Amino acid sequence: MFSENVGTSMTQIDPWDKFRHTLIEVIDSDNVTRRELFQLSQSKTGKVTDGKSYFKALYEHFEYKRDAVVEFLIHLTTKTKLHLDEGTISVPSILKEYTEQLRYTEKEERLKRENNWSKCDLIGREEEIQRAMDSLQNQRMKGVWICGLGGMGKTSVADEVCGRLLRETSNWRILKVELREQKHMRDLVRSTLILIGELLMTSFREELSDGDLEYTSKSNEEDYFEDLNQNSWRQLLIQKCCESSDQNKLFVFDNMDDILVSHEGDLMNFLNKLVNMLIEAEEDEMHQGKTRFIITSRASLPSTLTARDLRDVFDEVILKELSDQQAMLLFKQELTQQNIPCVK
């Protein structure tokens, strides 16, 4: 279950509850889906009559172990190829993403309970860490772009910044989205929405304010997301990021490389829109909490026209090669951690 630090506003919502209620509505309103799910689940549920009794029977069969229920539903909906919202949303894909984000959240909570957020010794990176800390706590700045060659420690620096923020004050929610090998904007949007508690099981059109975001840089039909869902999800993500909250939010978009290569213009347009709306929201005297971002990638913040405004509110932190002395200290540290004797 998502912890108390995972949610989108003062009212914490477990995305599993949203999924369960949505699937109950589908079962109760779609005779074909209901008949197929009930037939394939009969050995687990026995005879059931509606969505509510179906989930009750599943919970009883799996002894109220949610993980087991979710795994069964992933297998079941994969077999039935269940999609929602006119075929645009794959139910098993959503459930798989939910379980992945859930595992990450539980790991982070365990680390905090075990006090493993203690300060680590990142050799040769103190200046970069402090600069990132200062920028994230600067009211004018909205984020930090950490860049450098592979293996330079970008993720480690981002993690250390998160740890220090949590040690200094508990009023931060850290939402880390792993984007390694993710090539499309929809991957970023979907993963982030799922992490903050939106399962994308409906179109959200009724939740949105008037007007949808328009994106004119769609050049690849495969990444088009033809209907309004992708724009709606982007708008929903922007709204969630800009929501007033009693906690500060820090989104960490780790390993942005592939999306930056494939859809740089689209990404910059989206980030510009997000930042502009965030600035407007935080200027409201009634707004509570702040939202900040850490982005890591090999490439630096683009110098294109669309990225120009971002440079005013994102601090670029470039990780350079360690000195020979620092590299030797790091090597000795690795040997010590692996209990390998160091020859002097």
How would you sum up this structure, described in words?
With 344 residues, the chain is α/β, with parallel strands linked by helices. It has 2 domains: 15-104; 123-328, Rossmann fold. The protein is 49% helix and 10% strand. The protein has 12 helices and 7 strands. The strands form 2 sheets. It has a 5-stranded parallel β-sheet with strand order 4-5-6-3-7, with helices on both faces. α1 (15-29) packs across α2 (31-45) and α1 (15-29) crosses α3. The protein is elongated. The termini are far apart. The model is unreliable at 1-12 and 202-228 (pLDDT under 50).
| The CATH H-level homologous superfamily of the largest domain | P-loop containing nucleotide triphosphate hydrolases
Mean pLDDT: 78
Structural class: alpha/beta
Percent in strands? 5-15%
- In spatial order, strands of the major sheet run 4-5-6-3-7
The rounded distance between the terminal residues' Cα atoms is: 49 Å
- Let me know the largest β-sheet: 5 strands, parallel
Helix-strand string: HHHHEEHHEHEHHEHHEEH
- Structurally, the number of domains stands at 2
Indicate the percent of residues in helices: 40-55%
